[in-house]
Amino acid sequence: MSEAQAAPDRSIARDLTAFQQNILVILSDEPMYGLAIKRQLEEYYDSEVNHGRLYPNLDDLVELDLVAKSELDKRTNQYELTDPGYEAVVDKLDWTFSKFVTDAGRADTVRDLVDDNA
After folding, report:
1. Other CB atoms closer than 10 Å to residue 68's CB: what's the count?
2. What is the per-residue burial (b if ≥16 Cβ within 10 Å, else e) of 85-98?
3. CATH code for the domain of 40
4. Taking every annotated instance into account, which residue ranges of this chain make up the domain Transcription regulator PadR N-terminal (predicted)?
5. What's the Cα-to-Cα distance from 59 to each of 20, 27, 40, 46, rounded to whole Å?
6. Which of 54, 64, 92, 107 could serve as a FRET partner for 20 with CA atoms 20 to 30 Å apart?
7. pTM score above 0.85
């Protein structure tokens, strides 16, 4: 994929709220159902995350094709990071990491670290 093709997805991902970015980071570990995501967010924020905040944000991430939603059973949905969602997580980490790392002897980007360890 060329840089020009990736740019629109990147700009969308870069406009996500911190809450949405945190959901993507949680899902980068493994697919999860909504309540498991909720528990991890509550642990991170050290406060309750209500359903009215979580599920609309999950739906927005699904609409943006950053998260895929599937049915585990009649009552439970599973959420999984898509390739563009993974790229959004790496892009955010890459940008953050670039602000801290300046030594020539270190990796220039998180992507370099991920690629080296793959």
Report:
1. 16
2. bebbbbbbbbeebe
3. 1.10.10.10
4. 23-88
5. 10, 14, 18, 23
6. 107
7. no
Domain range for 56 is 3-117
Residue 70: count of CB within 10 angstroms of its CB: 10
Compute the distance between CA of residue 81 and CA of residue 100 in angstroms, rounded to an integer.
26
64-102 residue pLDDT tens: 999 999 998 888 999 999 999 999 999 988 888 777 655
What are the backbone angles phi and psi of residue 31, rounded to the nearest 5°? -65, 145
10-66 residue pLDDT tens: 778 889 999 999 999 999 999 999 999 999 999 999 999 999 999 999 999 999 999
- Unique residue bearing structure tokens 């944000």: 57
Structure confidence at residue 107 (pLDDT): 59
Average predicted confidence (pLDDT) for the chain: 84
Number of domains forming the structure of the chain: 1
